[in-house]
User: Fold Single-stranded DNA-binding protein from Rhodocytophaga rosea.
Amino acid sequence: MASYNKITIIGNLGRDPEVRSISADRKVADFSVAVTDAYTDKTGQRQEKTEWFRVSFWNQKADVVEKYLKKGNPVYIEGRLSVRTYTDKDGKERYSLEVLGTELTLLGGRPSDEGGTNYNSSSSGQASNTFASSTKQVAPPLQTSDDSGGDDLPF
Assistant:
């Protein structure tokens, strides 16, 4: 049976990205994304719960992150979950769940507010900038009239 590991998150950057060069041809951009869910508790009060995700993008996408993302930016991210193992300052082994990003869309629009910016990788592995157009389709207004003939129902 095939396996599948994919996560999609929409949220806001919690801090400016930290970009590091691993080698001459490898770069990584790390940042955190806050995803807030709102709900109503038993007493009828509106509550919010925020989950934080660590996100990493590599190479060409790290360049895009470095150039365009700042703290507070709304983003749409697709990727896969990965467990990172590290040793803390006390020598204890720790685990951290992180998103290895594969797709990135800047939300909130450009200055003209015409949609987000979608940074998908092409088949050649190069990052391409595709702007999604936000064409709003408005439903025709419902026709309501009082000349319906009283209590006559069509069924």
User: Anything to note?
Assistant: The domain at 7-38+46-131 is CATH 2.40.50.140 (OB fold (Dihydrolipoamide Acetyltransferase, E2P)). The beta strands are 7-13, 18-23, 26-40, 46-58, 74-87, 93-106, 117-121, 127-131. Residues 111-116, 121-146 have pLDDT under 50 and may be disordered. The CA atoms of residues 23 and 59 lie 10 Å apart.
